[in-house]
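For the sake of clarity, the format in which proteins appear in this thesis is described at this point. Each number in the token line that follows is a code from a learned vocabulary of backbone shapes. One such record is shown here in full, so that the layout can be seen directly:
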Amino acid sequence: GLPRLTLVGNLQLLVENHRGVIAYSDQVIRIGVSNGELVVKGRELQIKNLYAEELMIKGVIEGLEYEI
């Protein structure tokens, strides 16, 4: 299905219905989604939970963008 994003302030992001992590650093996380890629940019980014259907990102989130 389509990705569902839940952003709590700019410190936590829950991504549901993802298709895997494509690239991961403490400043950029690229996540596969059904219609392309979700790019999370920020500082001190960490993937806290990674499950088949959801993942949790914590850190200072400075930007979100879709690449379709």
User: Anything to note?
Assistant: Residues 4-67 form a domain with the Immunoglobulin-like fold (CATH 2.60.40.2000).
